[in-house]
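Entry:
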Amino acid sequence: MDEYEKVIDSLLKGNEPEVKEPESVSIAPNDAGVYRVFVSDTEGNMVKGAAVQFCSDSTCMMAKTDENGVASFKADEGQIYTIHMLKVPSGYEKNNEEFKTETVYCDIYISLQKADSN
């Protein structure tokens, strides 16, 4: 999470951040009282408008990422939820992996590849 915060802080200050090649997903506990999904590309740019599905054993919710690349889900702690990308904006390849939360509120960081422009 620290690496993502450094990138975001650097971008907000108008600087070009040093970006390491991220893995496709990372998870970090939070104290926000919600599960948050952060979607970025492999260059660290946050992706607006990605449709994210968040499922328990009995129900699913869907949300689109906002201008900061964040989709938030209010759900009870104590169980593991499944997350996957339903749809991504034009210019990105859909990540077809399924991701699992922790049993406590957490931030899930998902990285998308840019689509081949050929």
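The radius of gyration is 14 Å.
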